């Protein structure tokens, strides 16, 4: 049976961390059983390159140094790989423990536990050590259902341009977009990407659930400067109609439409079983008001009233 | 599995550091400290004796367990400083920092917890150094109703019953109920899972739909029930629920993003034919009204009729005024 990958990676890590001088590929091959069994040079070389990449993903800084004979040597210096001193008290440890549980995405969940284990090895106390720490009953979870999440997260991290097919909310067919990805943001349980759209020559926000097919990496660097602050949330809020620009007056049947009442600027009770409300009027209010059917009547403005009547007529036609 | 090998390697590197400080550590304690099962720990302990700086030199790690305690007989094998804690990787710093910052934004979080989290975040940023840089490229905001949240949190920790006035969008009405809270969780919005005394069943309440809340004097006594598995999504229609078919045009494709469904078939005009199940089809009347010219209910007929009747009744108010 082939030697397990974890054993091979562990041996390579210990060799690189344990050495004071750079070790050549030949020396490493002689010290690690799995590499001896790897067979042909090609197979070994491919395996060795992949393993180094994997260890770098784990945070190891591996230096390559050329010796006098022109042979490349590798080592992971202790001083560049050491965790700086960090002292966390039991409350801080418990708070981080709660935070680490929020990820439901395999890669980030693994990374978060890995980080806690490194901190634990560095002396972070266990929550159980302290009897007066009672954590909050909250269980926050960050949902990640979109397949595009992981490739985009890595592309944002490494600042790599990407290409993907994207179907806009109201478009029937997807379109290919070339994007320099800046940041990912989760809001109200949905993930959004902000970046530079190369074809449009402008900043754009994309909703991950509308990416169809695979996210592919492009060679080369970013061409547009990355802004210091990216306003994903403001853009999404204006899509969702949360940015009210005006206000509207409506009649609402008594006892109905609690969410409308909750955000009303004023409510006047009428004697006829109807109340009059003033509410913020932003994009999408017409569609929302129609949901309440015969329990809402729009008084003004006239354009909102006309939009609501149009929508109602479409439904009445069947 | 490649992902597992990476996680296991990461864990074993930390284990080596941890075990060196604790000769004769108990398997149960170490597994708990590392957040893994005892079986996972034992499988790591099976691999470690094959590891070292050279398998030929005979300096493999001599780590051994009897299933209860763990002994490392040659802790010098790695050299004096070769088992120090390792720096955080970019992904590790990102995973922990983004989560900590997100949790710290929860308005209902206890002040003590928030302060501890902010202190830990600052220390972590300092210790992670440049590995913390990429964490600004990912962010998460939770939504929650601060006051309601704090009351639920207190009721859970004091084991008290709650009285609620709760809004049901499906019926557009407020109902009063007494519930025994079980837990709070946040998936986009913040929710309470509770045992509802009125319906004698487990119910999930979205906190931004709680119009009023009061902690009662009675003790809460929810029956022992298995917690819902949140990884499958919040809405999990059952196979027995009635089927609803909705046809939407391109402007109504968002329905497929918001409603869990069994199937969504492409239509020639760029729209979708969506088949979904719900315990209460009347709750979808709102959807039919909202869609307007962007879609219609195909079946059940009763639901399509009720949407049409509601629209006709609503229009009457406008026609009388025009």
Automatic annotation (TrEMBL), chain A:
Domain WCX: 246-316
Top-rank taxon: Bacteria
Listed name of the protein: Helix-turn-helix transcriptional regulator
Species for this entry: Streptomyces lateritius
InterPro entries linked: CBASS_pafABC_assoc_protein, WCX_dom, WYL_dom
Domain spans labelled WYL: 148-212
Entry-linked Pfam families: WCX (PF25583), WYL (PF13280)
